[in-house]
Hints:
Structural class: alpha+beta
Shape: globular
Low-confidence stretches: 2-45
Largest sheet: 7 strands, antiparallel
Radius of gyration: 25 Å
Mean pLDDT: 80
Number of helices: 2
Order of helices and strands: HHEEEEEEEEEEE
Helix content: 10-25%
Amino acid sequence: MSKSTRRLKIAFVSVAVALAGLAAAGPAAAAAPAEPAAATAQAQQTAVPVDFVDLPTTALVADGERHEVTVTYRNDSSADRTVAPQLLVESPDAGPFLTPSDVVVEQRTAHGCWRPVETASQTGTLFTDLTTAQRTLHAGETLTQVYRITVVDPEAQGTVFPRIALYN
Protein backbone atom coordinates (compact mmCIF):
# COMPACT_ATOMS: atom_id res chain seq x y z
CA MET A 1 0.00 0.00 0.00
CA SER A 2 1.44 3.37 -0.97
CA LYS A 3 1.98 6.16 1.53
CA SER A 4 -0.67 8.41 -0.11
CA THR A 5 -3.26 5.58 -0.13
CA ARG A 6 -2.60 4.91 3.55
CA ARG A 7 -3.00 8.63 4.36
CA LEU A 8 -6.24 8.74 2.38
CA LYS A 9 -7.64 5.76 4.33
CA ILE A 10 -6.60 7.31 7.67
CA ALA A 11 -8.25 10.59 6.67
CA PHE A 12 -11.42 8.75 5.61
CA VAL A 13 -11.57 6.79 8.87
CA SER A 14 -10.96 9.97 10.89
CA VAL A 15 -13.82 11.74 9.12
CA ALA A 16 -16.11 8.75 9.59
CA VAL A 17 -15.31 8.56 13.33
CA ALA A 18 -15.83 12.32 13.71
CA LEU A 19 -19.19 12.17 11.91
CA ALA A 20 -20.29 9.20 14.01
CA GLY A 21 -19.34 11.13 17.15
CA LEU A 22 -21.28 14.19 16.01
CA ALA A 23 -24.31 12.08 15.17
CA ALA A 24 -24.21 10.49 18.62
CA ALA A 25 -23.61 13.80 20.41
CA GLY A 26 -26.20 15.73 18.41
CA PRO A 27 -29.27 14.57 20.36
CA ALA A 28 -27.37 14.79 23.65
CA ALA A 29 -26.20 18.32 22.90
CA ALA A 30 -29.72 19.33 21.85
CA ALA A 31 -31.15 17.91 25.09
CA ALA A 32 -28.74 19.88 27.29
CA PRO A 33 -30.55 21.89 29.96
CA ALA A 34 -31.21 25.54 29.17
CA GLU A 35 -30.20 26.69 32.66
CA PRO A 36 -26.53 27.47 31.85
CA ALA A 37 -27.62 29.71 28.97
CA ALA A 38 -30.08 31.49 31.24
CA ALA A 39 -27.37 31.94 33.86
CA THR A 40 -25.05 33.37 31.21
CA ALA A 41 -27.74 35.78 30.04
CA GLN A 42 -28.38 36.84 33.64
CA ALA A 43 -24.65 37.41 34.22
CA GLN A 44 -24.50 39.56 31.08
CA GLN A 45 -27.48 41.60 32.26
CA THR A 46 -25.85 42.30 35.63
CA ALA A 47 -22.64 43.34 33.85
CA VAL A 48 -24.37 46.28 32.16
CA PRO A 49 -23.83 49.62 33.91
CA VAL A 50 -26.97 51.22 35.29
CA ASP A 51 -25.46 54.71 35.36
CA PHE A 52 -22.30 56.74 34.79
CA VAL A 53 -20.74 59.49 36.87
CA ASP A 54 -19.00 61.95 34.56
CA LEU A 55 -15.89 63.61 35.95
CA PRO A 56 -14.18 66.84 34.82
CA THR A 57 -12.78 66.68 31.30
CA THR A 58 -9.35 67.76 30.06
CA ALA A 59 -7.97 68.54 26.64
CA LEU A 60 -5.88 65.85 24.96
CA VAL A 61 -2.37 67.33 24.84
CA ALA A 62 -0.35 66.16 21.83
CA ASP A 63 3.13 67.08 23.05
CA GLY A 64 4.61 63.58 23.40
CA GLU A 65 4.75 63.98 27.20
CA ARG A 66 3.02 61.75 29.75
CA HIS A 67 -0.02 63.37 31.35
CA GLU A 68 -1.74 61.94 34.42
CA VAL A 69 -5.52 61.75 34.77
CA THR A 70 -6.92 60.82 38.17
CA VAL A 71 -10.35 59.21 38.42
CA THR A 72 -11.85 59.48 41.91
CA TYR A 73 -15.22 58.26 43.16
CA ARG A 74 -16.57 57.90 46.70
CA ASN A 75 -19.28 55.37 47.46
CA ASP A 76 -21.56 57.51 49.64
CA SER A 77 -24.25 54.83 49.79
CA SER A 78 -24.75 52.47 52.72
CA ALA A 79 -24.23 49.40 50.53
CA ASP A 80 -21.36 47.91 48.56
CA ARG A 81 -21.34 48.99 44.94
CA THR A 82 -19.73 47.52 41.83
CA VAL A 83 -17.97 50.27 39.90
CA ALA A 84 -15.49 50.59 37.05
CA PRO A 85 -13.33 53.58 36.18
CA GLN A 86 -13.17 54.38 32.48
CA LEU A 87 -11.41 56.85 30.21
CA LEU A 88 -13.01 58.06 27.00
CA VAL A 89 -10.88 60.03 24.56
CA GLU A 90 -13.21 61.72 22.12
CA SER A 91 -12.19 63.00 18.69
CA PRO A 92 -13.36 66.40 17.44
CA ASP A 93 -16.75 66.19 15.72
CA ALA A 94 -15.21 67.21 12.38
CA GLY A 95 -12.27 64.81 12.75
CA PRO A 96 -9.62 63.70 12.36
CA PHE A 97 -10.79 60.63 14.25
CA LEU A 98 -8.49 59.05 16.80
CA THR A 99 -7.26 55.47 16.55
CA PRO A 100 -5.87 53.36 19.41
CA SER A 101 -2.36 53.80 17.97
CA ASP A 102 -2.58 57.59 18.48
CA VAL A 103 -2.31 57.36 22.27
CA VAL A 104 -0.68 55.20 24.92
CA VAL A 105 -2.76 54.71 28.05
CA GLU A 106 -1.24 53.30 31.23
CA GLN A 107 -2.68 52.62 34.66
CA ARG A 108 -0.84 52.91 37.97
CA THR A 109 -0.96 49.64 39.88
CA ALA A 110 -1.30 49.30 43.66
CA HIS A 111 2.49 48.85 43.78
CA GLY A 112 3.13 52.16 42.00
CA CYS A 113 4.18 50.60 38.69
CA TRP A 114 2.59 51.45 35.34
CA ARG A 115 0.87 48.83 33.21
CA PRO A 116 -0.45 49.36 29.69
CA VAL A 117 -4.20 49.64 29.19
CA GLU A 118 -5.70 48.63 25.86
CA THR A 119 -8.13 51.00 24.20
CA ALA A 120 -10.82 50.22 21.69
CA SER A 121 -12.43 52.61 19.24
CA GLN A 122 -15.98 53.33 18.19
CA THR A 123 -17.05 56.24 15.98
CA GLY A 124 -13.97 58.30 16.77
CA THR A 125 -14.00 57.71 20.52
CA LEU A 126 -11.30 55.67 22.22
CA PHE A 127 -12.30 53.92 25.45
CA THR A 128 -10.86 51.65 28.11
CA ASP A 129 -12.53 48.33 28.88
CA LEU A 130 -15.10 48.29 31.66
CA THR A 131 -15.22 44.55 32.32
CA THR A 132 -11.59 44.30 33.41
CA ALA A 133 -11.83 47.46 35.52
CA GLN A 134 -14.83 46.37 37.64
CA ARG A 135 -14.35 46.23 41.39
CA THR A 136 -16.44 46.27 44.51
CA LEU A 137 -16.34 49.52 46.41
CA HIS A 138 -17.53 49.11 50.00
CA ALA A 139 -19.82 51.66 51.64
CA GLY A 140 -17.86 54.81 52.47
CA GLU A 141 -14.78 53.80 50.45
CA THR A 142 -13.14 55.97 47.84
CA LEU A 143 -11.72 54.71 44.55
CA THR A 144 -8.74 56.58 43.16
CA GLN A 145 -7.34 55.33 39.87
CA VAL A 146 -4.49 57.14 38.17
CA TYR A 147 -3.99 56.86 34.41
CA ARG A 148 -1.20 58.21 32.28
CA ILE A 149 -1.86 59.27 28.68
CA THR A 150 0.85 59.88 26.12
CA VAL A 151 -0.19 61.14 22.70
CA VAL A 152 1.98 59.50 20.04
CA ASP A 153 0.51 61.29 17.01
CA PRO A 154 1.45 65.01 17.14
CA GLU A 155 -1.62 65.82 14.98
CA ALA A 156 -4.07 64.14 17.37
CA GLN A 157 -6.79 66.28 18.90
CA GLY A 158 -9.50 65.46 21.36
CA THR A 159 -10.89 65.58 24.86
CA VAL A 160 -10.34 63.18 27.76
CA PHE A 161 -13.57 62.21 29.54
CA PRO A 162 -12.96 60.26 32.76
CA ARG A 163 -16.02 58.60 34.25
CA ILE A 164 -17.20 55.90 36.64
CA ALA A 165 -19.59 53.14 35.58
CA LEU A 166 -22.06 52.13 38.29
CA TYR A 167 -23.45 48.61 38.24
CA ASN A 168 -25.79 48.28 41.22
